[in-house]
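User: I want to check something. If I give you two sequences, will you return the structure for each one separately, not as a complex?

Assistant: Yes, each is folded on its own. Here is the first sequence with its structure:
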Amino acid sequence: MGVYDMTTAIDFILKSTGYSKLDMVGYSLGTTMSLACLSDRPEYNSKINKLVLMAPTSRLKSSGMPLKIVKKYSNIVNIFLDRFNFFPYTNDPDTTYRLIRRMCTNQSAFKYCRQFIDFAQGIILPINNDTILDIVSEFPQPMSSKTLKHMLQLLTSGRFTHYDYGPYGNMLHYHTKTAPDYDLSRITAPTYVIYSKNDTLVHPLDVKWLINQLPNIKDVHYIDKIPFGHLSFSLSPMMKEVVNMYITNKLLDNNL
């Protein structure tokens, strides 16, 4: 996705608008794609005016409880992912999510739907019941099993590497028996990083590691004064004040 989808999207936008550069804002897996794109295709750095990374996901060495559980059972998860091209697997996603929403409207089942969100988030979000129902009606969307296996590889290895095809496959793809690390020193676009103390999926220690690898960090916004987890970047009622205004100010400041 980083090498093919992201580069195609950048070229399409620049061609359609006539601009020579664009601002790129990524969140979670979107930041992983951005890092992969600008590392493997460094010529695209010249097309990025400002790069904003929210909850940047690269190395997953110091993950919190949700991912620690996934890591513990990684062999089982891998076997499961090998059986399907997409996960969660469903022949009819729209019908499946309608049924999940209907199930969660049941008072006795709702608390478990709420607990699922809180567990993924790591903290209790101050959001109303209707929002919870909206979330379980859409999240998580089916995703390529290969993408999930790649994230699992990052989790188990504690490194930020290309997809591991095994020794033979790696020789074909990379001409080396082991999957190489992404060369983050090649990401020269002006970079702004936003991360939070309470993020249990992308641990602050891993973000600090990433910051130290990137050569053109312009500013870092660390959210530690209020409860703000990984999903807060899209769901928190404080999103405007804590994140959006910061991003807007940075993107509109031509002196940066």
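And separately, the second sequence with its own structure:
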Amino acid sequence: VLFTVEDRYFFATFTGDSKVAQIQNNKLVEACVPLEEDGHTGYIRLKGRASIVNNAALKAEASERCYFFDEYFSGYDDPDYTLIEFD
């Protein structure tokens, strides 16, 4: 799921997810994010560079701002949590 923190775009994902390995091999990515609101649908298409965030402070801040984080991860230091920044 895509979310923003101070005009920066992030994805929270599982460390074992294939997109993590793909980004480590090729930082040029494209993502389509489906949207739905009030019976209307659409999507956001992003194209650019992605990077794996290793900064603990940024991972902690992002985890606090990600509305669904607690449903999937035990904390920002959960080894199964990977934060991806999209430029």
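Because they were folded independently, the notes below concern the second chain alone. The helical segments are 18-25, 56-65, 69-72. The radius of gyration is 13 Å.
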